[in-house]
Design brief:
The chain is built from 12 helices and 27 strands. By secondary structure, the chain is an alpha/beta fold. One of its GO terms (molecular function) is glutamine-tRNA ligase activity.
């Protein structure tokens, strides 16, 4: 029975509480996540993962991970490995060992024979085109296959010979015998098995017939005694067949409940189209930081906590939703602001010389690592006569009185260092600033300021002699349109953003040379950045994870 503490936050939980109150399955709750291992998981899968695991956890239940590996043409072990890694990275652990639909091939085969013996399935020699034509249309009844009235004995013989490899691909299929006039077209004698003489990534050459999703999925749920089969809304019309097979085979009655998919602006979640981006060289691979895959988001630096929060906070609905990228980035920023240490890097450097600072002198200045968390401690920064600052932080002539950065006659505080007075600049023949000249107030040292000088602006900087070159990959969305799949008559590839990746060489404080792959930092006044796997010894590579504010920085 349900506990009084069990209150429903959505319609799925309402259904579960109803089952608990009715004593169904003895109060046991068991969900599953059944991905097909034909590509990497993406942000849409994250929503399904969170719903399945969090729902089971709330009611003290369990969740299985089962690979829907019934199509040997597209499935690979590398995809299995990455799916497992992604789920664990998100923070979830499934019940027992990873399961596979292929674990149940013999049981599924026996269930198919049971349907045949009950006169509820038959072997059809019609072509795929002929079967499609037999289905009819909405409001138009279908027509029976000429092979529909074969006897159970004849169908069993043919199906056994299909398994034995006697027939070529496409020559025969096994169809359920339901109703060719059924209002749900999916129940007009759906195909359950097809012939494929291809090696399977787990079973090798053992099988040459493979069940289709509609047969393998529901029956695998029943074999595992899944109480609640939570799936996306696209499978709503498949539920009738799901239930028909349970009744026809008299097996464990799993309950299918559908929820709406989650779409996110500027992301696509079709594995086929994600694969096309790779094949066309638009991106470098499944884990390219511009992809919607969890591997890509991880490489970019998205914390798993932020993705979980995003999926939970967007709710569970019966209607497909389109979420903004700004909301996802807000969730990322929320976590990184709390956890990421603050470091200094200058992305578009110009030299600044403090003319009254002693030549050749270097002093170490203390700065906090994370003002959000004192336990992160402090570190020391080298300070010298020559520094790098951002080119955009200098104006020859300020546009208004509220300009608080560098300009002739302006006082500015250098973060954790001194207040400086801008005296002017040097430039090349084309008018480009090549050097900014300043003086400093020796008594204005941060934390010990007795100068009496007030500076309204604070800038980040890097000591020029101690600076390290860092590669920085600045990202914008991969597409120029938030919904590139929604334009009739246009290919989504037409919306590829040519500015989605800009690679620059920046100047970083020396500690960044020792940053490790996966570490994340806030570059002061720039954004949050994460160390990329391409990093090599002494050659750090940083990905822009998210800007400091909503919108895109590139």
């Amino acid at each position: 029975m349900s506990s009084p503490s069990h209150t429903a936050d959505n319609f799925i939980e309402e259904s579960i509480i109803e089952d608990l109150n009715n004593g169904k399955h003895g109060g046991r709750i068991h969900t599953r996540f059944p991905p097909e291992p034909n590509g990497y998981l993406h942000i849409g899968h994250a929503k399904a993962i969170v719903i399945n695991f969090e729902t089971a956890k709330k009611f003290g239940g369990r969740t299985n991970l089962r690979m829907d590996d019934t199509n040997p043409s597209t499935e690979e072990t590398q995809f299995v490995d990455n799916i497992q890694h992604d789920i664990r990275w998100l923070g979830y652990e499934w019940e027992g060992e990873t399961r596979y639909a292929s674990d149940y091939f013999e049981e599924l085969y026996q269930l198919a024979l049971k349907l045949i013996d009950k006169g509820l399935a038959y072997v059809d020699e019609s072509t795929a085109t002929e079967i499609e034509a037999q289905k009819g249309d909405i409001g138009v009844p279908g027509t029976n296959s000429p092979y529909r009235d074969r006897s159970p004995a004849e169908n069993r013989d043919l199906f056994e010979r299909m398994r034995a490899g006697e027939f070529p691909d496409g020559s025969r299929v096994l169809r359920a015998k339901i109703d060719m006039a059924h209002p749900n077209l999916l129940l007009r004698d759906p195909v359950l098995y097809r012939i494929k003489h291809e090696a399977h990534h787990r079973t090798g050459e053992d099988w040459c017939i493979y069940p289709l999703y509609d047969f393998a999925h529901g029956q695998s749920d029943s074999i595992e005694k899944i109480t609640h089969s939570l799936c996306s809304l696209e499978f709503r019309h498949h539920r009738d067949l799901y239930n028909w097979l349970i009744e026809a085979l008299e097996i464990f009655p799993s309950r299918q409940i559908e929820f709406a998919r989650m779409n996110v602006d500027y992301f696509i979640t079709s594995k086929r189209k994600l694969k096309l981006l790779i094949e066309e060289g638009v991106v470098s691979g499944w884990d390219d930081a511009r992809m919607s895959t969890l591997a890509g988001l991880r490489r970019k630096g998205y914390p798993p906590e932020a993705i979980r929060n995003f999926c939970m906070d967007t709710g569970v609905t019966r209607r497909d939703s389109q979420q903004t990228l700004d909301l996802l980035e807000f969730k990322v920023r929320e976590v990184m602001n709390r956890n990421a240490d603050r470091y200094m890097a200058v992305l578009d450097p110009v030299k600044l010389v403090i003319t009254n600072y002693p030549e050749g002198q270097t002093e170490l200045l203390e700065t906090e690592n994370n003002p959000e968390d004192e336990s992160h401690g402090t570190r020391q920064l080298p300070f010298s006569r020559e520094l790098y600052v951002e080119r955009e932080d200098y104006r020859k002539e300020p546009q208004n009185r509220k300009y608080y950065r560098l300009a002739p006659g302006k006082d500015v505080r250098l973060k954790s260092a001194y207040i400086i007075l801008c005296e002017g600049h040097e430039e090349d023949d084309e008018g480009n600033v090549t050097q900014i000249n300043c003086t400093y107030y020796p008594e204005s040292k941060s934390g010990e300021d007795t100068s009496g000088v007030k500076a309204k602006g604070t800038l980040h900087w890097v000591s020029a002699p101690a600076a390290v070159d860092i590669e920085v990959r600045m990202y914008q969305p991969l597409f120029t349109d938030p919904t590139p799949m929604d334009h009739e008559g246009k290919d989504f590839m037409e919306f590829i953003n040519p500015e989605s990746l800009q690679v620059i060489t920046a100047k970083g404080e020396p500690a960044l040379a020792e940053a490790e792959v996966g570490e994340s930092f806030q570059f002061l006044r720039q954004g949050y950045f994460t160390v990329d796997p391409d990093t090599a010894a002494g050659k750090p590579v940083f990905n822009l994870t998210v800007g400091l504010k909503s919108g895109f920085k590139g």
